[in-house]
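Sequence design from tokenized structure. All designs in this work follow the same two-part layout: the structure record, then the generated sequence. An example of the structure record is given first.
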């Protein structure tokens, strides 16, 4: 009787989440994990951020953010108020009631899913797992990962999912650089391994974000995220293909898309570009491709979209080559080219999988001399695929400098770039984003590609 009463007095994880007494542990403090950690801390949970990179942890504890979506001042306040701190000591996982995994899920060189970060993290959690904990995977992955990969590793601890600890999947849906939608304002899809895990995950995220969308199984939630990214990859490939076709016909694809978008139903605008970039769209769809093979199925739309999108940098180079030849009688091997924008998308500093790097590579391979300018990327950091560019610095834009290039190639349409200066002093502008027309610059030296 006494024991029963004592047991009833011990707060459950549900109580702790409701009272904001739960400690949240966020593993992987990158583009996804850090904003989530800050949102959890702001929602009232004492939050511990975990990262294998001790230097990152030290910077965060000093109140210094390295992610655009998180202001250093906000972070410093949370650290000062003891609501957030970062560590590389994973033994502290034991004090967490909720553990969220936000580690990378890249592709291997053979373009197969590389789940090593997730597996390693699951093993680390298993070593510290205790009863009552909720573990959530947020990393984008193939449908089935939570139950087929993470769950067995956690259960090696001797504890059982749904009885001793609780397991869920909730995909991250961030849009870096998007000021309107941030971690807390983007609806969060959630599914647990069993009803208790679902209820706990819904309660935790319900406290952190404005809206939670529950789905039936973790595999469904995993499929939701992959579907969103496949949808983007396929639609971008479609407009990229249309760009090439309409260009040959003398039709401006951007004008077509903008006019088509006035249809109040049944059309959603996607815009062509120089190729896909970032951590998600070029990578995630192939997680589904890999898993589909297990069922003897092929993902033809994904493969086709991948082929078209991967070919876009080649198309841009061929357009640049034609225009240099036609207008300046200069071959690519003798040309000086300035890449405008190194980040994979506007107004962010993230260069992962950026088409700018692929374009720099292609230009270098053809013997061209190539520089870059990016207001967000002062110096090229180490990258897995393009090590030879590490340390290259962004050049300053000025009239003499611009006039010295045979062509300026706009790859990323950052708002902070001085397009008026570029319009006035560049000999040839190859615009892959239609940014010059959107800003009202019209001249014979601007060429869309
Ligand atoms: N960046 C986005 O916009 C975005 C959007 C949606 C989904 N995602 C998904 O979220 C996941 C994380 O992506 P990201 O962009 O935040 O990656 P990131 O590279 O910015 O951050 C990952 C962090 O995890 C750390 N890390 C690596 N291995 C670790 C380990 N074993 N233990 C602890 N920390 C470890 C790294 O040091 C790094 O700080 C990926 O699955 C990605 O597909 C990303």
């Amino acid at each position: 009787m006494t024991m029963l009463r004592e047991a009833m007095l011990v707060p459950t994880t549900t109580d702790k989440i409701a009272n904001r007494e739960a400690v949240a542990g966020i593993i992987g403090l990158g583009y996804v994990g850090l904003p989530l950690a800050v949102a959890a801390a702001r929602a009232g949970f004492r939050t511990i951020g975990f990262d294998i990179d001790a230097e990152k942890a030290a910077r965060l504890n000093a109140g210094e953010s390295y992610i655009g979506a998180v202001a250093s001042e906000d972070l410093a306040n949370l650290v000062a108020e003891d609501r957030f701190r970062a560590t590389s000591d994973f033994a502290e996982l034991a004090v967490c009631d909720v553990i969220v995994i936000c580690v990378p899920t890249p592709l291997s060189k053979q373009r197969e899913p590389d789940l090593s970060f997730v597996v390693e993290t699951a093993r680390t959690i298993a070593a510290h797992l205790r009863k009552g904990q909720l573990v959530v995977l947020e990393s984008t992955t193939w449908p089935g990962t939570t139950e087929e990969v993470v769950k067995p590793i956690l259960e090696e601890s001797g504890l059982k999912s749904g009885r001793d600890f609780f397991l869920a999947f909730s995909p991250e849906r961030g849009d870096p650089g998007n000021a309107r939608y941030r971690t807390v304002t983007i609806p969060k899809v959630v599914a647990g391994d069993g009803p208790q895990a679902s209820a706990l995950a819904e309660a935790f995220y319900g406290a952190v974000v404005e809206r939670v969308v529950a789905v039936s199984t973790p595999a469904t939630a995993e499929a939701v995220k992959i579907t969103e990214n496949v949808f983007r990859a396929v639609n971008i490939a479609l407009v990229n293909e249309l760009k090439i076709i309409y260009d040959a016909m003398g039709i401006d694809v951007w004008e077509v898309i903008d006019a088509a978008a006035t249809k109040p139903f049944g059309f959603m605008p996607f815009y062509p570009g120089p190729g896909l970039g970032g951590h998600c769209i070029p990578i995630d769809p192939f997680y589904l491709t890999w898993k589909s093979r297990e069922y003897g199925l092929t993902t033809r739309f994904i493969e086709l979209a991948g082929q078209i999108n991967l070919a876009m940098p080649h198309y841009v180079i061929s357009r640049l080559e034609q225009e240099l030849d036609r207008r300046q009688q200069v071959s690519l091997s003798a040309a000086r080219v300035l890449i405008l924008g190194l980040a994979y998308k506007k107004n962010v500093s993230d260069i992962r999988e950026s088409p700018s790097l692929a374009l720099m590579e292609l230009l270098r391979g053809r013997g061209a001399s190539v520089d870059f300018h990016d207001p967000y990327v002062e110096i090229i950091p180490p990258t897995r695929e393009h090590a030879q560019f590490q340390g290259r610095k962004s050049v300053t834009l000025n009239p003499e400098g611009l006039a010295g290039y045979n062509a300026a190639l706009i790859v990323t349409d950052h708002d902070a770039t001085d397009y008026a200066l570029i319009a006035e002093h560049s000999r040839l502008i190859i615009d892959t984003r239609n940014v010059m027309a959107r800003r009202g610059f019209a001249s014979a030296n601007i060429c869309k590609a």
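The CA atoms of residues 289 and 297 lie 8 Å apart. We note this feature because it recurs in several other targets discussed in the main text.
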